[in-house]
Design a protein that fits this description.
The chain has four helices and three strands. The protein is of the alpha+beta class. Strand 1 and strand 2 (64-69) form a beta hairpin.
Length: 96
């Protein structure tokens, strides 16, 4: 990988430049790699069309999977995994 640096640093130490740019993936490369979280959210949305899904990343403990009814935004369900979230939604559907 080629690092780009500001011209003033080339003479001294280009590895220590604060202006170094490390290029990331292009949109095409990122789409080709796929994202398992996006795939799981798409699966949940297909199974539960009345619900809206998202994740909240945490620094410790992994993401929190969240869902709320599209017609009742105050009703929110949280779980530690997509599988647990689906179980909670099944329980909520049985209670209705």
């Amino acid at each position: 990988m080629l690092l780009k640096c500001c011209p003033a640093c080339w003479a001294s130490d280009p590895g220590r430049c604060l202006n170094t740019v490390i290029p990331g993936l292009t949109a095409t490369e990122e789409a080709a790699m796929g994202n398992p979280t996006d795939a799981k959210i798409a699966e949940l949305q297909a199974d539960w069309p009345r619900w809206e899904f998202w994740i909240v990343p945490r620094a410790v403990g992994g993401p929190v999977w969240c869902a709320r009814r599209r017609d009742h935004h105050k009703r929110v369900v949280n779980a530690a995994s997509a599988e647990h979230l689906a179980e909670h939604l099944e329980d909520a559907a049985d209670a209705e």
